[in-house]
Amino acid sequence: MASKDAKYDLIIIGGGAAAFSAAIKADMHNVKTALVERAALGETCVNVGCVPSKNLLGTAEVLHSVKELPYPYILPCDSGFDFAKTISDKDRLVRSLRKQKYQDVVSGLKNIELIKASAAFVSKKRIRLDNGRTLEADKFILAAGSSPSVPPFKGIDEVDYLTSNEALSLKAVFNDRHWRQGFGLGIRTNVC
């Protein structure tokens, strides 16, 4: 168990690909490091980006190919699909890859302490975590990534909208054909 206040050679804030690469390199050089991540390791690509979007697009492609066969002598079959199971499968894949590619790897790094918390600088060499701990280091790497933002379009506050993170977390399918087409295009062009 780590003490309330701790000193490290390096503190990395973030848990995505850049932070993870830095942690591996620090471990290779025996640098005592705190890896501070407030959410899930893997950040955008694994959790709400490339992996889940490509998984859902793959499902959509198979569903489309079953409905739109290019051969006139084969009758299309549309037995539908189970959206809840599709999302469950996507979530299972995300959890599996997060564990395999991030959590299991970080647990094997002897010089890295993974800390699940939000951080705020209180001085040039100190951060305070939302769990009450204060950490100190001579060097920091800020690799906190980004999150979706909603552009300030006129009238945007008057309509329901979804960010990409929210869209990938839907539990029910929308019936609006135009929305579905726009969503697919947005995911393909904006996520990866």
Task: Report helical residue fraction.
Answer: 40-55%
- What is the third-level CATH name, the topology? FAD/NAD(P)-binding domain
Look at the structure and give the CATH class: Alpha Beta
The number of strands is 6
- The overall pLDDT, averaged over residues, is 86
Instruction: State the end-to-end CA separation.
Output: 38 Å
Helix/strand structural class: alpha/beta
| Gross geometry | elongated
> Which consecutive residue ranges, at least 5 long each, have pLDDT under 50?
187-192
Would you identify the CATH architecture? Answer: 3-Layer(bba) Sandwich
Total tally of structural domains: 1
- Which homologous superfamily in CATH is the superfamily? FAD/NAD(P)-binding domain
Beta fraction: 15-25%
Spell out the helices and strands N to C.
Answer: EHEHHHEEEEHH
Description:
The structure is a single chain. With 192 residues, this protein is of the alpha/beta class. The chain has a single domain (5-145), classed as FAD/NAD(P)-binding domain (3-Layer(bba) Sandwich), CATH 3.50.50.60. The protein contains six helices and six strands. The protein has helices at 17-28, 43-48, 50-67, 83-107, 164-167, 177-190; strands spanning 5-13, 33-37, 112-116, 119-123, 126-129, 134-142. The chain has a six-stranded mixed β-sheet, covered by helices on one side. Strand 4 and strand 5 (126-129) form a beta hairpin. Helix 3 (50-67) runs antiparallel to helix 4 (83-107). The protein starts with a strand and ends with a helix. The relative contact order is 0.21.
